[in-house]
Design brief:
Layout: E1 7-13, E2 21-26, E3 30-35, H1 41-59, H2 63-69, E4 77-81, E5 86-89, H3 102-106, H4 108-119, E6 121-122, H5 136-147, E7 151-163, H6 167-175, E8 180-183, E9 186-189, E10 201-212, H7 217-233, E11 237-242, E12 248-252, E13 255-256, E14 263-264, E15 289-293, H8 295-298, H9 321-333, H10 346-354, E16 356-363, E17 370-377, H11 380-390, H12 394-401, E18 404-408, E19 424-425, H13 431-436, H14 439-447, H15 455-477, H16 494-508, E20 514-518, H17 526-541, E21 545-549, H18 553-558, E22 561-566, E23 575-580, H19 582-587, H20 591-596, E24 615-621, E25 629-634, E26 638-643, H21 649-666, E27 677-679, E28 686-690, H22 703-706, H23 709-718, H24 721-726, E29 750-755, E30 758-764, H25 775-778, H26 787-791, H27 795-801, H28 806-817, H29 834-846, E31 854-859, H30 867-882, E32 886-890, H31 894-897, E33 902-907, E34 916-921, H32 923-927, H33 933-942
Parallel strand pairs: 3-21, 3-22, 5-20, 20-21, 26-32, 26-33, 28-31, 31-32
Antiparallel strand pairs: 1-2, 1-4, 6-19, 7-10, 7-11, 8-9, 8-10, 11-12, 13-14, 15-18, 16-17, 22-23, 24-25, 24-27, 29-30, 33-34
Length: 943
């Protein structure tokens, strides 16, 4: 045992599948917890150590405060000693709000706002001149200097370029004791009942004083009082009119354009915030995008007639008011509802789409009768827009969105901010321009900023700039230099989001904290791994404890202490099979050690597949950072798309190729990024995309419901003789609807007892003993098993049990093939690890009938997988390809890349330094490439 002051002691941990384990974890060290996916790593790190840390933190609050927070359940552990405050950096914690960006998560944008509010120079959006602001004393001195010996009028502007008759305003000005006003450049006496033309725009100023400027105390006192009065009525702006030349000059306490007199409020940080009404663009509410009607979506096929459903939102002809209106419009513009839409005149289409009102009469040539018609039509486009903007129903909004495109806001052009905010600049850049550049360029800009600031600006900005530079360097250190601050957080991958949070934590420079990270190397190229490990070592070196749940070989080898959990997964895991320094771990004969020391490895295939000779060619892709990329994807092969983080892999595959294929085969509506053309789509017959999004995370979701095998099992139970006699339908065997489920616990198997300000307690339902169903339902048996027994079966047990039912057997067999034989069919999705959830999703897609001509796209399927799990997964994928299907994988993991038949390497760098094809060919050909970063690491694997 290590000294208790230097360790975290966990005694008797039994959460999920942990088998009453005791472990001492050294403090202020980099500790890696590894083991097969599902062996209990996250149960130890997150559900035991982190959960207890959180619970203790909440326990420090008063009972009154705790009842609002909701208590946390005490993890099933006897005791944990030596626990510091805990911060968990997980993969699934980023916000999906469109208002959350890289800048707001890292707080860099908050510092930028402060910098621009305090040190930015304002420029006029009319003339581009630098704005000026004066104190009353300065204004008095300037007037005395420039107008000495001249007769001037001091004016207070009250109306600028607005329409109206302003009778009430003139009355109000008279009541305040003023005698003259200047209207549209002409000084007039105020008279009773005075008013202007209400349909013309006017400028109105109050004449506050008329005086001769002299160098005497009386003149100065009068001038000071008049300036004060004019500022009060003109809202901090006044004008001086030279009576001889009739020229005017503006002065303001606020920032003001010396030529046109427009003024800005003094800047505050919220002027630069797109989440505040003070700074957000009013047209798009600070989102940067608006939804616009796409006519092509309303009329997808102009060859169809209106009657045959040519207008997608209306569908085929029905005897309704809207079609009667269209018939009336047809009478006016002489077309019938049976005519093809492409033959209808542009004028008629304008009225159909955008609406209009009209009265007209038509005289019948044969009967000589005149018929009166009246059109009052909102227009299809306007109706869709109104429904989208004003409807309270989510489904109607979604329906309307199908006919719209998300486009950049035409007012702020995607900058999200008001016009005034964009005219505050530092070194010729506004805040939106700085948010749009890559972090690497932004770091350079800030490093050179000192040379471009005035002495006053330097004094104000020194602390803020230091904070910004520190945070930018941390982002560069975790391999995220290709991101921009304006990048929406919902478009980040799990690994990127986690590394951003890591950089934010390093930036906060806390000491004495226990950090727990969940696979931070996801989505990170081997080249950047070194930077990530260095960042974690930095966290450790300033006096923190770092626990990382990780499968990455480099990370395990660089750790101070390694804990290997196993020996297998699920109920066959949950034990500590080895622990110690990386060198000590290598001497053990665990699966992890054997992969680390080379005893076990994923073999490189003897020869690469030839494919079927056909291919898909994508030409001229230019989305995001892609530089006119053209690729050829040979079919019937395992294709890997590689490249450093941010080089453009996801843009090319997930945002360009997949939407094109999905639109072609399944009429998908996601708009692909721009490209010139695609050829060869006739060679495949469907596309299946397996991405990283998590599967349902509610206690009612489980592998059986997610893979839809439960639907087939329920149908099977309805066909048993007893079930047919009783007339049970499939709903009887569902725990989500009333009828067959236990109503005491509503089918969840446990009852929640609320303890007001103590944590909720979960107890097994006493009515059904956790079986979820009522007695009558459980009496129905198939091969001696009730529906509850089937949900409690492991997948390995279910495969032979259902071997005579092909529909069920195929699905459970696929779950077994991806290495999940140990989980039960009814296991709650909330208790699945990240790697397990990813493979359940994979199994669901793989169990769909492949045609031998299917194109699979997978985005980092190795997320959360141990070396051994990867071997099992690649066996399944290879079988798919051997049947003639094509599989494209976006991947950083060398064990997968070396198995590919064809690699496309994108680079050279991330962000704007990427977006080109660096190399393509077999792994052996790629390894010879001198410029490719992937080649340097692949070469070692192929030896």
């Amino acid at each position: 045992m290590l000294n208790t002051e230097d360790t975290i002691e966990v005694i008797g941990a039994r959460v999920h599948n942990l088998k009453n384990i005791d472990i001492s974890i050294p403090r202020e060290k980099l500790v890696v917890i590894t083991g097969l996916s599902g062996s209990g790593k996250s149960s130890l790190a997150f559900d035991t150590i982190y959960a207890e840390g959180q619970r203790r933190y909440i326990e420090t609050f008063s009972a009154y405060a705790r009842q609002f927070l909701g208590g946390l359940e005490r993890p099933d552990v006897d005791k944990i000693d030596g626990l510091s405050p805990v911060i968990a950096i997980e993969q699934k914690t980023t916000s999906k709000s469109p208002r959350s960006t890289v800048g707001t998560i890292t707080e860099i944008y908050d510092f930028l706002r402060l910098l621009f509010a305090r040190a930015g120079d304002a420029y006029s959006y009319n003339t581009g001149e630098k704005m000026v602001s004066y104190s009353d004393e300065q204004i008095k001195n300037l007037i005395t200097e420039n107008f000495i010996g001249k007769r001037i009028n001091i004016l207070a502007p009250v109306i600028r370029a607005r329409k109206g008759h302003y009778a009430e305003l003139f009355q109000q000005i008279t009541k305040q004791g003023f005698l003259k006003v200047r209207v549209n450049g002409e000084v007039q006496d105020l008279v009773a009942g005075m008013k202007l033309d209400r349909y013309k725009t006017h400028d109105i100023e109050i004449v506050v004083d008329r005086l001769l400027v002299e160098n005497s105390p009386e003149s100065e006192k009068r001038l000071s009082e008049s300036i004060h009065t004019a500022m009060y009525h003109g809202e901090n702006v006044l004008m001086i009119l030279d009576q001889d030349t009739n020229q005017t000059r503006y002065f303001s306490r606020n920032l003001m354009c010396p030529t046109t007199g427009i003024s800005y409020q003094n800047p505050e940080p919220n002027l630069f915030s797109f989440n505040s009404p003070k700074g957000a663009c009013e047209h798009c509410n600070g989102l940067g995008t608006v939804n616009e009607i796409n006519t092509k979506k309303i009329v997808p096929n102009p060859k169809l007639s209106i009657k045959n459903g040519g207008f997608a939102p209306l569908g085929e002809y029905k005897s309704s008011w809207i079609f009667k209106q269209l018939e009336t419009i047809g009478e006016k513009f002489e077309f019938k509802l049976t005519d093809a839409i492409e033959t209808i005149s542009a004028e008629a289409m304008e009225m159909i789409l955008n609406g209009g009102k009209d009265k007209f009469s038509v005289t019948s040539k044969t009967a000589g009768v005149t018929k009166e018609y009246k059109i009052d039509f909102e227009g299809i486009s306007n109706f869709i827009k109104t429904q989208h903007d004003e409807s309270g129903s989510t489904s109607i909004k979604r329906w309307a969105k199908d006919f719209m495109d998300e486009v950049n806001c035409p007012v702020c052009h995607g900058s999200r901010l008001k016009k005034e905010a964009l005219y505050f600049k530092i070194n010729d850049k506004n805040i939106a321009e700085l948010s749009n550049v890559d972090i690497s360029d932004l770091t350079d800009w800030f490093d050179n900023l000192d040379n471009h600031l005035s002495e006053k600006q330097k004094t104000i900005a020194i602390e803020v700039v230091k904070e910004i530079k520190d945070r930018l360097h941390f982002l560069v250190n975790v391999g995220l230099e290709y991101l921009a601050l304006s990048r929406s957080s919902k478009s980040l991958s799990g690994g990127e989001a986690q590394r951003i949070r890591l950089a934010t934590q390093i930036g906060s420079q806390l000491v004495g904290v226990l950090y727990i990270l969940d696979e931070p190397s996801i989505g990170l190229h081997q080249r950047d791994n070194e930077k990530l490990i260095h960042s974690l070592e930095q966290l450790r070196d300033i006096g923190n404890s770092v626990i990382v749940v990780e499968h990455d070989k480099d990370m395990i080898e660089r750790a101070d202490y390694v804990i290997d959990i196993g020996p297998k997964a699920g109920k066959f895991g949950g034990e500590i099979i080895s622990k110690g320094t990386p060198a000590e771990i290598l001497e053990q004969h665990t699966i992890t050690a054997m992969y680390l020391n080379g005893e076990m490895k994923i073999e490189v295939p003897k020869k690469r597949r030839e494919g079927n000779g056909k291919s898909i060619k994508l030409t001229g892709a230019t989305g995001n950072n892609l530089k006119n990329v053209s690729i050829e994807l040979p079919l019937g092969k395992l294709i890997c798309v590689t490249g450093v983080s941010g080089s453009g892999k996801s843009t090319l595959i997930n945002e360009t190729l997949y939407p094109i294929l999905n639109e072609y085969y399944f009429n998908g509506v996601k708009k692909p990024q721009p490209y010139k053309k695609i050829e060869g789509l006739e060679h495949i017959d469907k596309v299946i995309d397996i991405d990283q999004s998590p599967i349902g995370r509610t206690p009612r979701s489980n592998p059986a419901t997610y893979t839809e095998v439960f639907t087939e099992i329920r149908s099977l139970f309805t066909m048993t003789p007893e079930s047919m006699i009783r007339g049970y339908k499939a709903g009887r065997f569902s725990f989500n609807v009333a009828g067959g489920r236990c109503e005491t616990c509503e089918g969840s198997g446990v009852r929640t007892i609320e303890m007001s300000f103590l944590p909720d307690v979960y107890v097994e339902c006493e009515t059904c003993q956790g079986k979820r169903f009522n007695r009558e339902t459980l009496e129905i048996r198939y091969k001696g098993k009730s529906i509850s027994d089937v949900l409690n079966m492991t997948v390995d047990e279910a495969v032979p049990f259902f071997e005579n039912i092909p529909k069920i057997h195929r699905k459970v067999k696929t779950i077994q093939d991806v290495g999940l034989g140990y989980i039960t069919l009814g296991q709650q999705s909330t208790t699945l690890s990240g790697g397990e959830a990813q493979r359940i999703k994979l199994a669901t897609e793989l169990s769909k009938k492949d045609t031998g001509n299917t194109f699979y796209i997978m985005d980092e399927p190795t997320t959360g997988l141990h070396f051994e799990d990867i071997r099992v997964l690649m066996d399944v994928i290879n079988k798919l390809v051997d049947k003639g299907n094509s599989v494209l994988i976006i991947e950083h993991n060398m064990d997968v890349i070396k198995l590919a038949d064809y690699i496309i390497d994108i680079g050279y760098e991330g962000g704007k330094g990427g977006g080109e094809v660096v190399a393509k060919g077999t792994p052996e050909e790629i390894a010879k490439n001198k410029k490719s970063y992937t080649a340097q690491f692949l070469k070692k694997e192929l030896l």
